[in-house]
Design a protein that fits this description.
140 residues, mainly beta, Lipocalin, 8-stranded antiparallel beta barrel, 13% helix, elongated
């Protein structure tokens, strides 16, 4: 009887430990991605900017830039599309991350940006904005 109780206790401990794992709901997209290149529709190419996209469950954060800044967005991930809603940033504040702003400084406090994921694996992310900007990233 003691042996059976010990086996059951061990099973409960293992099940409890396994249920505490925090596996990402967004798969390979989860984590920090360094932008390696941005290609604009007019042919302009920006290589190796020191900027990052960070994706965590339902949140995204854009970091880096000439003056280190951070912008946080609510994220909707509907494979293969991403929608980021920045409640405290206008598009003009996000141009360093490949976003083409249609607003002017001070005009808006909310910006919604949509992306289509062209390539996603454990080390590479390529996404295109709805304005046609292609953003190449590597896992960082």
């Amino acid at each position: 009887m003691k042996k059976l109780a010990l086996i059951l206790a061990n099973i409960l401990i293992l099940v409890g430990l396994g249920s505490c794992q925090d596996t990402p709901l967004i798969g390979d997209l989860a984590g920090q991605w360094q932008i390696t290149k941005i290609e604009y529709p007019d042919g302009t190419v920006v290589d190796s900017p020191e900027r990052y996209y960070c994706f965590y469950r339902h949140t995204a954060q854009l970091t880096g830039g000439e003056v280190h800044t951070e912008h946080t967005a609510n994220m909707t991930y509907d494979k293969p599309d991403i929608t980021l809603e920045f409640p405290r940033a206008g598009g003009w504040q996000l141009t360093q991350w490949g976003i083409i702003a249609t607003d002017t400084p001070g005009e808006s406090t909310t910006w919604v940006q949509k992306y289509h994921i062209d390539t996603l694996n454990g080390s590479k992310l390529v996404m295109t904005t709805e304005q046609g900007v292609v953003i190449y990233c590597r896992k960082f």
